[in-house]
Amino acid sequence: MEMLLPALTAPCETAVRICGRWRLREFAELASTNTFAAQLPAWTAVRATVQTAGRGRTTARRWISDTGGLWLSMVVPCPGARAKWAILPLAAGWAIVAALGELGVTGARLRWPNDILIGRRKLAGILVERHRDDTAVIGVGLNVLNSPEECEESLTGMTARLADLTPGACDLEAVTRRVLHAVHRVHIELLDRGFRRIADELNAGWGKSRRVRVTLTGREHVIEGSFVGVDQQGRLRIHTAREGVAVYDAYAVEQLRELG
Ligand code: BTN
Fold first, then answer.
1. Closest CA to 76 of 30, 129, 32
2. 244-248 and 253-258 strand pairing
3. Residue environment code for 1-22, b if the CB has 16+ CB neighbours within 10 A, otherwise e
4. Ligand 1 and 27: CB distance under 6 A
5. What is the dihedral of CA 45, 35, 182, 199, to 10 degrees?
6. Which of 80, 124, 132, 153 is the most exposed place for a label (fewest CB within 10 A)?
7. Is the CB of 139 under 6 A from ligand 1?
């Protein structure tokens, strides 16, 4: 009798290397580097040339992950209470902006909590996930030499990529090293000293106060006001004429859109 066995499709691992404190595992193709990294030990990083099911921050959003981009997930240690790590997505965004500065990119900015924009175009996105109590996965998608707009028409005019910003600094290996180094540095600061200095620097760097529309999670409730940075726990601060400054936890916010 013939038995049908499910196809065993182990992902093709192309390299394992040590990069500073990181053990970097590289693959030709993965569904999602974040999913693959979920149960790996702290200070492991996973990079794929292509992701077939890259995930964005909202469940509705898939992340176009064509060849030439940086699709990287980093597992970091998160000891202690979970609540204390609510600031991780912001700190990760801060680290990636720092790495971009070191690569010679000028004008990269964060849109709360951690979209990385050039003007209004998205250069990079970050998805932080907690699958275990003691670690988190920081997933970074950074457009380098890839062409997301050619893969998805609806993205036309909405993305930026390093190839157009710093043509001389598009070597994926070098970009990977910078990102790994910056995330390690910022994470060590979080572990040793907490979020205070990063919050201060973030608040100094948001740029002009912007009108925003904030949609709260699970509610039809929408607030319009001015974005006035984050507090020492990384919570969003919005000023409205009626309420003054109100503070929102990241999990309570479904979407923040900049107006005008
Ligand atoms: C967003 O802005 O919506 C977040 C995008 C995060 C994409 C990265 S690519 C590497 C990692 N693996 C995933 O499936 N997603 C993240």
1. 129
2. unpaired
3. eeeeeeeeeeeeeeeeeeeeeb
4. no
5. -150
6. 153
7. yes
- Identity at 149, one-letter amino acid code: E
- Neighbouring-strand partners of residue 73: 46, 139
Report the alpha-carbon distance of residue 19 to residue 55 in Å, rounded: 25
Q: How far apart are CA 37 and CA 100, in angstroms?
A: 23
| Helices (H), ranges, the chain | 33-37, 88-102, 148-151, 162-165, 172-193, 196-205
What are the tens digits of pLDDT across the range 193-235? 999 999 998 898 887 778 999 999 876 789 999 999 999 888 9
pLDDT in tens, 11-55: 899 999 999 999 999 999 999 999 999 999 999 999 999 999 999
Instruction: Answer yes or no: is the C-beta of 55 below 6 A from any ligand 1 atom.
Output: yes
* Closest atom of ligand 1 relative to the 72 alpha carbon: 10
Q: Ligand 1: distance of its center to the CA of 72 in Å?
A: 8
Give me 239's structure tokens.
């000023």
- Taking the C-alpha atoms of residue 127 and residue 122, their distance in angstroms, rounded to an integer, is 14
Ligand 1 neighbour 125 (Cβ under 6 A): yes
Those residues with Cβ within 8 angstroms of residue 47's Cβ, 6 or more apart along the chain or in another chain: 24, 25, 26, 27, 33, 70, 71, 72, 73, 176
